[in-house]
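Incident log, entry 3
Record: Hpt domain-containing protein (123 residues)
Problem: checksum mismatch between cached and fresh output.
Input:
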Amino acid sequence: MANMASKGSTDRFVRHGGHAPIDLAQLATNTLGNRELQQEVLKLFLARSKTLISELSAADDRQHQADLVHSLKGSARGIGALRLADVCDTVEEELREGSSPAFLTLVSLVGETNDFIRELIEG
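Fresh output:
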């Protein structure tokens, strides 16, 4: 099956610094180029990230917060959202070390990634 987006169709998805929130080549590799599987994992990420962010905002224990961010990091890597995964890694480390985590950056990037996913799915 074809990849989710061809080179020409990805041009409209370029974001900050010339990079899309999701590495479409990585997504294609992770899903063996199966477009239906790509759509499915992206939809799963939308639902999972929403749940994790909601749980994160309600959690008051730093260990639990770190575990939630760790889960989000794995999900992000699975779809090729490598910049988000890197931010998750930093926030998780900050939580485990007891320093102030960059929650606003994390939430903003999740929103940007999810907007990008919706464009891919609907576009």
